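HOLO CASE FILE
Compound: S-adenosyl-L-homocysteine
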Amino acid sequence: MTNAPRSHGTKSIRASLRPRDLMAEAVPVHAWQARIITLFPEAFPGVLGQSLTGTALKHGLWSLETTDLRDFGLTKHRNVDAPPAGGGAGLVLRPDVVGPAIEAARGPGPLVYLSPRGTPFTQATARAWAAGPGVTLLCGRFEGVDQRVLDHYEMQEVSLGDFVLTGGEIAAQAMLDATIRLLPGVLGNAASTEEESHSDGLLEHPQYTKPAEWQGHTIPPVLTSGNHAKVAAWRRAEAERLTRDRRPDLWARRPQD
Ligand code: SAH
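Model generated. Tokens follow.
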């Protein structure tokens, strides 16, 4: 085995091993499980290994397993792709490579293909994923994945936004970050996920901190007044103003009290 298990509770799965046995040994039953199928396992945990998500990974609040698509490649060259049927530019990931990788990697929770054609990822998606046991994410590369795999496994397609990345890895890390920070115990101050942008259909109010004056700019006096009711009212009004001005789409859809 050349791909040794990673530190911080992460682990790689090789085609030659029996992944389910390995996972049964290493993953705490209570941990939220992120499983990633990728041609670039070395890209993980990436930024998720830093700060609060990194500490949570070390403490076993979530677990990370990467499955290297290359290990399921065909022939001695470990080919994973082939030209598109019907012609055209680029390469498509083969179903007889991606299928076995999914079989080896798949865990509890949704099976998701990261895709610019997918349903847009939102805070609601993060909340739904965080409430479940985990997620298995397939990162595409090149022109994407053979459609038969997506159909066969009835994969959900989820998009990070209306733009095209070169691969699913950055999308996976962004979506996992948004999800993991909602898991119990990951953020020190749980209240901060209740008041932030997108949690109640509004963008967050502006934030200020020390010093009281910077470059001639002062803090809005209400914030230093000590009047909690007035502070709350100011924040609410600012959140509404920002949402109305910047995101009329969110403003129109906001939950009405
Ligand atoms: N030919 C495809 C794009 C392939 S981009 C198309 O036009 O739809 C290569 C890979 O990057 C995809 O397989 C996908 O896994 C990932 N990717 C690209 N953009 C993405 C996005 N906005 N959200 C999530 N994943 C994305």
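CASE NOTES: Residues 114 and 238 are 35 Å apart (CA to CA). The longest helix spans residues 228-246.
CLOSED: yes
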